[in-house]
Each structure stands twice: as structure tokens, then as C-alpha cells.
Amino acid sequence: MDISIVLNVLALMISVCALTMSITVARRQLNLAHNSNLLPVMIDAFRETRSTAFLSSMHYIREELSAHPADDGYRNLPQEAQLHIRRVGLFYDDIGKLVAHGIVEESLIFGAYGGAIARIWDTLAPFVYAERQKYHNLTMFYFEDLASRASPDAMQEVHRTLGLGRRPPAQG
Q1: Which end of the chain is more exposed for a tag (fewer CB within 10 A), N or C?
Q2: Which of the four pLDDT bands, split at 50, 70 and 90, describes residue 158?
Q3: What distances in angstroms separate CA 29 from CA 17, 21, 41, one per listed residue?
Q4: What are the pLDDT digits (tens) for 111-125?
Q5: Residue among 118, 109, 98 at smallest CA distance from 158
Q6: Is the pTM of this model over 0.85?
């Protein structure tokens, strides 16, 4: 075999390796850039769900909202009820937008909020549907989509898939 052919094949192999490495590094940099832009958004979301106001709204929806009729939507409810519904419903609607558009992975959201998404939606759905019918809008449409994807044991499924470990309290 001619030495020039061997050198050409060798040069081609080196070029393919360099191209492969460049693509790999570029993909990694793109992922890092995406995650660095997403990090502040997710930290704010996590901070919001731990706020006293948000926790109070979740409690109100779970424990007190059922005292109000859903027939007329939520705009005609007392102002306090509207505030709690909007705080929680629009938060999950915004999270649903991020998931639906592929900005945030579904598993991150379900791993953090789990089946609460579906439970809160089930409580709010009669109010939201009445609101949509009365005002001909698509309020909280992304929240509904997010809830449709969530299962009651979504959090446990994500944790199992990730292989998250457990460490129960030590005995005696």
C-alpha cells in the first residue's frame, strides 16, 4: 500500500475524531447554557412554593374552597377566594407553559410537586370550567394540560426512575 494513502486515511480518521469531539463539546456547552438560564427561573419557582402566601393559598384551596359554589366561575367569589385560586392556579399554569414548550423537563416538575398538581387541579377544575364557559376563555389551559400528565404517584415514579436513595431514621 502506498504511504500517501495511509497518511490520507490517517488524516481522515483524525479529522473525524476532531469533528466528533467538537460536536460533543458544543452540545455540552449548549446544555450548560440552557441550564444556567433556567436555573434562576426554577429557584424562583421553588422559593414561591415555600412562601407563606403560597402555602396559605394551597391550604385554602384544599380545606375551604369547597364551601363556595363553582357554578359561576371564580371571578364572582369573595376576593380572598379569588386571590388564592389565582395565586396557585396561575403559578401552575406558568409551570405548565414551561413544560408544554419543552423549556423544563416534566420529570423535574413532577419530582418536585408530584401528585399535588393533579389534586389541586381536581379541586379547581369546576371553577375553571365554569369560568371558561361564562367568559369564553381558556384560563389555566396549561395548568390543565400539566395536570393531565400528572399521575397520583408522579413524584414517586420520578424518584424511582432517578434512583434516589432513602435513609430512614436510625433505630434506638
Answers
A1: C
A2: confident
A3: 18, 12, 19
A4: 888 888 999 999 999
A5: 109
A6: no
